[in-house]
Structure formats: structure tokens, C-alpha cells
Prior knowledge:
The chain is α/β, with parallel strands linked by helices and 322 residues long. The chain has two domains: 22-143 and 232-274, D-Maltodextrin-Binding Protein, domain 2; 146-231 and 277-320, D-Maltodextrin-Binding Protein, domain 2, CATH 3.40.190.170. Helices cover 42% and strands 18% of the residues. The protein is built from 14 helices and eleven strands. It has helices at 2-7, 37-52, 70-79, 89-93, 111-118, 121-129, 158-161, 172-180, 193-198, 209-214, 248-282, 293-299, 303-308, 312-320, and strands at residues 24-29, 57-62, 84-88, 135-141, 146-150, 165-168, 184-187, 204-207, 223-230, 234-239, 286-289. The strands form three sheets. Strands 2-1-3-10-4 form a five-stranded mixed sheet. Strands 8-5-9-11 form a four-stranded mixed sheet. Bound molecules: beta-D-galactopyranuronic acid (GTR). Residues 31, 70, 87-88, 90, 143, 169, 190, 207-208, 211, 234 line the site of beta-D-galactopyranuronic acid. The site of beta-D-galactopyranuronic acid (GTR) has 12 residues, from β3.
Amino acid sequence: MIGLFILGGCQSHISDQEKSKPEVYFRLAEIHPPDHPTTQADKEFTRLVEERTNGRVVIKVYDSGQLGPEKEVLDQIQFGAIDFARVSTGTVAEILPKLNVLQLPYIYRDSDHMWRVLNSEIGDFFLESIEDKKLIGLTWYDAGARNFYNSVRAVRTRADLEGLRVRVMESQLMVDMAKALGTLVVPMPYGEVYSAMQRGVIDGAENNYPSYDTSLHYEVAKYYTVDEHVRIPELLIASQKIKERVSEEDLEIIKACAEKSQEFQREKWLIKEKESEQKLKEAGVIITQIENRSEFVEAVSSLYDRYASSYLDIIKQIQEME
Ligand code: GTR
């Protein structure tokens, strides 16, 4: 029976009557709320795993940060207290700096370019390298492009960003990137951003449309600037400890289901990006475009050497990829 699953990748041939009792329960951590596309994809992944393992492996999604902020979740995954998580590549790059290559500012021309990279040997190399950190890299998810937003003014040039107090992820590369663009940087966990903006501790932050929407940050920072300074892929990861609790066959099924859920996530992502943009406009968000992309690109260019000097050949391959 197991052979059937593997041959068909993530295909099911099981009827309800054939379902067995769960042999193992796992937990998956997600900081986004249920209406965010990555949370929906997590649930699709866990649904597929349960179906394809004939109910032997059950994974419950704890969304909305119930299991803690991403940085803490990552610690816990490493020693096996949490089994699975969907986190940002930016979070994992803090313990595995080579991943910074994939989140360098303006490294991808657009979304298609990023996906060609992620689903090539380069993406596989980085996904597999996660194994060095007691983790299993399962698949990439989309997170679009990140843009600055704030409560003070509409931003069209780099000078407009000057002096704004901006929250970034707890990632050294993101801190240096936002500094290079002239902002006063405040790294903090995602879950604290809304109230920090509401209390005026910070003026703004930066994120993609769906996160800006579902976190309700737009309620307290209505100026959104499409500068697309980074595309940071999402990662679905597992603790290596899960290998002690599932068979090799079930591990293969889990990996195949993760890969399968990428298609689902990417479709949901594109839909949500458009929906969020529309909803935000209707809610009174003022969306501006930057006037001169190259002034942004130039301001952050020194980060390539600082964060990825050992990977200049891979960077070249990425940049030359059609
Ligand atoms: C989101 C991402 C999260 C987290 C968050 C943040 O776009 O999906 O994993 O990194 O940004 O800014 O902390």
C-alpha cells in the first residue's frame, strides 16, 4: 500500500473505511491568522499528509502565533519541542547566514525570476543546507515583495524615508538594509508591531500586501510605498526529531505533500495579493510608487559584499538566470 503513495507522489488511493488510527500527532507553528494564504497552505499540507498517510500522521496547525514568535519557534524546532513551522527565510538566515543570498535586496527582477531560482538547483542547494541546523527544509512558499509603510507621509523617494522609525524583522541583513535606506531601524517580533505603531513607538514597518492587510497594520499606518526592496521566500520546515517518530516512507510522503502544497500556496498567494490591494485602497490606504528604483538599488548595493561575499558566483548565476 505504501508503495502506491510513493509511486504517485502525493496521490491518495485510500477510502474512509481504510483509515487507520493516528500513530503520531505533530504541531505546526504559524504566525499568520487563518485568512492568510500561507496559513491556508499549511492547512492544505497537513490535510494532504493525513490523507496520504491514511490517517497515521496528524499535524495540527497552531496559527496566529499561538506557539510564540518565529525566532522562539525556530529554537524550539531545533531541539524538537515543536515539530513543524512555516517561517520566513529571514528568520532561518539568522542561524544559517548563507540563506541571506536568497533575501538580498533587489536580487530578483520579479516574482517569476525568484521562482525560477527557488525551483532550480540553487533553490535545492539552499533548502538542503538547512539540514545542517537540525532542521528539514520541506519547501518554499511565496511572500511576494516587501514594501515600506508608515503613518507619517507618502514616500516616493529615498529622501522621504529619511528619519522614519521603521520596524524590521529580527534579521541583521534587514536592519542594515533599512539603515542603508535612511530609516531609523527598530527590530522587533511581528506580533508587537501593531501596538508599537498605535502607541507611536515606531512610525511604520515593511511587508507584503497580504501581511499588511491581515495584520491590520494599515489601520495605524496608511501610507504604503511600492518599492519592492526585498522578496523573502517563506519556508516550510520540520525538526529533524520527527525522523524518530515516523517511518522513512511516511517521511517521504510528508516531503511530497509539502512540495504539492507549494502549488496551492502560490495560487492562493496571487489571489490574496490582488484582493488585499483592492481592499486596502477601499479602506483609504494611500499607495505610492517610488520615482527612481535605481536610487534604492544603489543605496543597498554594499550589502551584497557584506552578507554574501562567499557566494558571489551563485549571485552571478541568479542574476544571469533568464
Ligand atoms: C511576513 C512573513 C512572516 C514574518 C513577517 C515579519 O511577511 O510571512 O514569516 O517574517 O513577515 O515581518 O516578521
